[in-house]
């Protein structure tokens, strides 16, 4: 039994390019570092927010600034260089700010709301016109100030970019660390920026392929039990911790992904002898085989309208991205560039597919236009893996392998990049829904 699991595990991981190496303990929050910004980044300054009830336990303005800067779309003015730190619009000397080349300024304050929390008010100011262009008010509980700061950033982001911000979203990822003479794998859920990490599941054996339910309440993943010679595909409720086992059949139980309505899971099973893609109805427990081919078919990903599934297959000799109807019909090959393409991930609007492309001497994240099939490379490589779109479709999270294995984000045009690093190995990122 153990030998059978080892063979199927190697076959599966060889296709998806999943590599884990020993690392230092990895339990701290991820740290966001901006590596490249857009040349047309929007200049903005967010002055420290005032407080009528004493010092705030969270620096709302700094968190919001970090959010905006992490996208690479905003050129955030450093606090130490501010000519003043107003907290209301009527305190602003616009001429002084113009001399600092600040186009946009945010000023705000927080006060007790009479319900044990805070009422946050802030203005978005056009420095050159010398006026407020938007005013906002947010109510937050005492322990919700960080979420309130993310909301501030979301409102500013939407005002300038025209899309909803993703700063209240969460990510899931796998860490691996040396612990007590062995390895410890953890499935961790955190805020999108790596703060507030919480371990969802921990094991001495590998964990793979986290996938968020559309409503953000559950995560599907694969857990291995090497001693029993089995893998188990599971769904875990994040609020209760309850685990529902979906499949622990002989061979591969892998690569789960949710349908847009949250009613079905697509997955890869090999209990009939060959790795094929199946659809599992969570309400009726009905399992439906979608592919039946002598090749390895895996890494299914639903289109946002639920009508299609993109997947990886080596039926043409090497891993490439294919697409089929959600009932398994009308299979067509999508990718022809590069030596191989795999791990397809649809954008939320269905207009793009991110994937891992092997070309030259490395693996890089590529983005395909679903209308034209044109592909552009957006990451630097040489060992990038596991792309997943932000819930607003404006960025992609992925794993970078190298001297320091870490997560990274890149805009869909490849112009802006940041990395989420910590002192250990971080793999298999999955980006959850918007969060509001």
Automatic annotation (TrEMBL):
> What InterPro entries would the database entry show?
6-blade_b-propeller_TolB-like, Tol-Pal_TolB, TolB_N, WD40
Bilayer-spanning residue ranges: none
List where Polar residues composition bias occurs. Answer: 410-421
Q: Which UniProt keywords are given for this protein, alphabetically ordered?
A: Cell cycle, Cell division, Periplasm, Signal
Using the UniProt record, give the first listed, main subcellular location: periplasm
| Quaternary structure (record) | The Tol-Pal system is composed of five core proteins: the inner membrane proteins TolA, TolQ and TolR, the periplasmic protein TolB and the outer membrane protein Pal. They form a network linking the inner and outer membranes and the peptidoglycan layer.
Job of this protein = Part of the Tol-Pal system, which plays a role in outer membrane invagination during cell division and is important for maintaining outer membrane integrity.
Family statement? Belongs to the TolB family.
Q: Where is the signal peptide?
A: 1-28
| Residue span, TolB N-terminal domain | 30-132
The segment annotated Disordered runs over 410-436
Q: Enumerate the SUPFAM superfamilies for this protein.
A: TolB, N-terminal domain, Tricorn protease N-terminal domain
Highest taxon listed in the record's lineage: Bacteria
Q: Name one Pfam family in it.
A: PD40
Return the protein name. Tol-Pal system protein TolB
Question: Which species is this record about?
Answer: Salinisphaera dokdonensis CL-ES53
Annotated compartments: Periplasm
């Amino acid at each position: 039994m153990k030998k059978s699991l080892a063979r199927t595990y190697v076959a599966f991981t060889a296709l998806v390019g999943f590599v884990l190496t020993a690392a230092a303990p990895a339990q701290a929050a991820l740290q966001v570092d901006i590596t490249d910004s857009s040349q047309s980044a929007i200049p903005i300054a967010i002055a420290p927010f005032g407080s009528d009830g004493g010092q705030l336990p969270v620096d709302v303005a700094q968190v919001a600034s970090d959010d905006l800067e992490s996208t690479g779309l905003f050129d955030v003015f450093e606090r130490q260089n501010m000519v003043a730190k107003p907290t209301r619009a009527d305190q602003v000397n616009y001429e002084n700010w113009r001399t600092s080349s600040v186009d946009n300024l945010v000023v705000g304050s927080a006060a007790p709301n009479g319900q044990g929390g805070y009422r946050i008010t802030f203005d978005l100011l056009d420095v050159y016109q010398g006026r407020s262009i938007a005013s906002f008010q947010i109510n937050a509980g005492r322990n919700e100030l960080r979420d309130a700061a993310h909301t501030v950033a979301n409102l500013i982001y939407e005002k300038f970019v025209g899309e909803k911000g993703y700063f209240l979203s969460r990510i899931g990822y796998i860490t691996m660390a040396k612990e007590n003479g062995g390895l410890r794998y953890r499935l961790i859920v955190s805020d999108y920026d790596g703060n507030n990490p919480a371990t969802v599941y921990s094991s001495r054996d590998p964990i793979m392929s986290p996938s968020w339910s559309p409503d953000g309440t559950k995560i599907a993943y694969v857990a291995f039990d090497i001693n029993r010679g089995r893998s188990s595909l599971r769904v875990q409720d994040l609020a209760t911790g309850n685990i529902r086992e979906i499949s622990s059949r002989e061979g591969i139980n892998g690569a789960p992904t949710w349908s847009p309505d949250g009613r079905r899971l697509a997955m890869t099973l090999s209990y009939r002898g060959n790795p094929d893609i199946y659809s599992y109805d969570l309400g009726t427990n009905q399992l439906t085989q979608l592919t039946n081919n002598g090749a390895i078919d895996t890494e299914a990903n639903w289109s946002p309208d639920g009508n299609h599934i993109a997947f990886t297959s080596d039926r043409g000799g090497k891993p490439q991205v294919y697409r089929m109807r959600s009932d398994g019909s009308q299979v067509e090959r999508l990718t022809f560039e590069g030596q191989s393409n795999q791990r397809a991930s649809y954008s939320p609007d269905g207009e793009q597919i991110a994937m891992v492309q092997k070309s030259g001497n490395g693996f890089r994240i590529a983005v395909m236009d679903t209308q034209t099939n044109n592909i552009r490379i957006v990451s630097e490589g040489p060992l990038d893996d596991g792309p997943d779109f932000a819930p607003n479709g404006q960025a992609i999270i992925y794993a970078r392998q190298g001297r320091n294995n870490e997560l990274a984000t890149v805009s869909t045009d490849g112009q802006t990049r940041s990395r989420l690093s910590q002192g250990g190995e971080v793999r298999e990122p999955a980006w959850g829904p918007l969060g509001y």
